[in-house]
Amino acid sequence: MIESVEQKIVDEVITSRKSIRAFLPKPVAKEDIQKILEIAASAPSGTNTQPWKVYVLTGEVKQQLSVEILQAYNNPHNQHKEEYHYYPVQWLSPYLERRRKVGWDLYSLLGLGRENKAGMHAQHGRNYAFFDAPVGFIFTIDRILEKGSWLDYGMFLQNIMLAARARGLDTCPQAAFNQFHKIIHQSLNLSDQEMVVCGMSLGYADTDKIENTLKTERDTSMFKFL
Questions:
Q1: In the chain, fewer beta carbons within 10 Å around the N or the C end?
Q2: Crossing angle for the helix pair 59-73 and 181-188, to the nearest 10 degrees
Q3: Where on the phi/psi map is residue 17: left (φ > 0), alpha (ψ -120 to 50), or beta?
Q4: What's the confidence (pLDDT) of residue 2?
Q5: How far is 198 from 181, CA to CA, in rounded Å?
Q6: pTM of the model
């Protein structure tokens, strides 16, 4: 089968997307952010519920949230906990092996050995500075919505990442923010009805940073043709 130009473009956008962990300070035009979100909102959702709500953070607002979360994160008595379980409570194969591999592959690139707990802590803390990206997103969902709406939300998030990639921008979706939902609620003045889904960094990748060379594997054996 001969691929069309459109197929090649779409495939390239999808396959070139990856999580970026170091961004350039180059600003992103507000018009581009707005367009990315408008396109992403074309995602399907059951009975057109459109369960997503997005807070776009730049400048001082983003910086202040980062400062507040990092203070809590670096506090040895930090007791902040996720409001919902993003990851399994009990890790089993093959998920445990995949998780360990991506973690150690990243730390290896950065020269962080298993004994370097402080270095790993600092690297994880980079999440809360949005990896120096000029734009940060915080996503929330109404508490009354159920699992189907969370599935719909995933398609919306994917659309954001692909629409960004098509414009030469990169992203990093971040569940790390979920632990500090109380700080986010207060800092952004969220309503009690809103639950934090995740965060995301948006900007231009710093291609000189070694962490951005990380490549994750995909297991195609999980596809079953019957």
A1: C
A2: 150
A3: beta
A4: 80
A5: 9
A6: 0.96
